[in-house]
Amino acid sequence: MKTAYIIDSTASLPEAYQDHPDVYQVYLSIHYANGDSLRDTTDPEALQRFYEDLPKEEEIPTTSQPQPQQFYDIMDDLVAEGYEAVYGFFLSADLSGTYQTAYSVMHEYDDRLTVHVIDSKSISLAIEALLDHTIRLQEAGASEGEILDHLEKMVDQTALLCCFEDLSYLVKGGRAGNASALIGKILNIFPVLEVHSKVEVFAKVRSRKRVYATIVDEIEKRIQDYPDGVERLIVLDALNPEGVAALEQAFTAAYPHIRVEKTYLTPVIGIHAGRDAYGVIAVPNLPRRYQAN
């Protein structure tokens, strides 16, 4: 079955998937007080400039989801090119309207394509991992039912713990969840946050070293519950070299047989995370019967 995949720009797609002929991206944007706009990007130089300039902004920029026309254009192209099925993978529905827009538009094509729209309940490469597993499972001969069952479990299991050192960005953007309770109430507290559907406070500690230790300890506990093991560990970066290096070193030492990757949070996520955010995603492995493929 000829299958296409749609994914949003916050997924930090690596080049291999950016150039994949069956993978299509929709783009979120950020908007500055002076009227300028920036399309979400993974370009390293643009990301460096974005995070260096972010603290200088007198007013925190706003973000916007992809316009519905982006989805209509892609879906029309898929029909014209003879695709029979499409999977969509998107930023958590509790953090953005992107999933709902995708769901509404893509399912208008149910009479022409088999449509599956997945709420990642997460951000960044946790979204890309869903795409990656779907493509690899299809190549290995997994059935549609097996793929959808695996994706459901993967969304539920994938762990993301992080620290946003300046929570004002998250609160002003309306994505704080219970993290808003920390603002202005407690000094010298570093919140360890968990992203699963919403952004919630997992723990409150009093030093960066305790942040690193808390993230490492909890990720190790989560990994023990992965029935098929862990495949990837991804360190998230919003221009915080100290935090990123500490997590990279800790996980590389603890899991020498696991890929430890690093990726920047894209600008749309960075607007809410703020500069100096960092964290880790633990991606579950493929089902054991497909791991050799």
UniProtKB/TrEMBL annotation:
GO MF annotation terms: lipid binding
Presence of keyword Transferase: no
InterPro entries: DegV (IPR003797), DegV_C (IPR043168), DegV_domain_contain (IPR050270)
Cell cycle is among the record's keywords: no
Keywords for the protein's UniProt record, in alphabetical order: Lipid-binding
Pfam families given in the database record: DegV
Role: May bind long-chain fatty acids, such as palmitate, and may play a role in lipid transport or fatty acid metabolism.
Protein known as: DegV family protein
